[in-house]
Specification:
- This protein has 123 residues and is mainly alpha-helical.
- It contains 4 helices and no strands.
- The protein has helices at 2-19, 31-54, 59-84, 87-111.
- Helix 1 runs antiparallel to helix 2, helix 2 (31-54) runs antiparallel to helix 3 (59-84) and helix 3 (59-84) runs antiparallel to helix 4 (87-111).
- The longest helix is centred in the middle third of the chain and has 26 residues, at 59-84.
- The radius of gyration is 16 Å and the shape is elongated.
Length: 123
């Protein structure tokens, strides 16, 4: 569910950036470009959330790859936003960069078989 909520937040952030409601202080921040990137990342994380929810055959691998991709993309976005964005956008990036590793760990532990009641010892 957390991964789905993250996908929704990417859609909202993308919409705000692309609509011109988010501006920056200086270069290299570009709200329009950021909106495009957030839409793409949001699509990847939304697809992973759906796969995880459905429990598809390779859902674990897809989820981990998508969340890893999202962490990398958002880390790059934070570096750009921190240089020229406003504080609400920086705070959004920092917040998601705190939540995304938690999502990664949750998928790894509870979807990939390493959590309680799963794995080789599960009866």
């Amino acid at each position: 569910m957390l991964t789905g909520a993250e996908a929704v937040s990417f859609a909202a952030a993308s919409t705000l950036n692309r609509s011109g409601l988010v501006g920056g202080r200086s270069a290299p921040f570009d709200a329009d470009h950021g909106g495009i990137v957030e839409a793409r990342i949001g699509a990847v994380i939304a697809a992973a959330a759906i796969a995880l929810w459905r429990g598809a055959g390779r859902a674990c691998t897809a989820g981990l790859l998508a969340i890893g991709f999202t962490i990398a993309g958002f880390g790059w976005g934070l570096s750009t936003t921190a240089q020229g964005g406003h504080w609400p956008d920086v705070a959004y990036h920092v917040t998601l960069l705190l939540l995304l590793p938690g999502s990664f760990i949750a998928v790894l532990r509870f979807r990939c078989g390493a959590g309680p009641g799963r794995g080789a010892r599960a009866g």
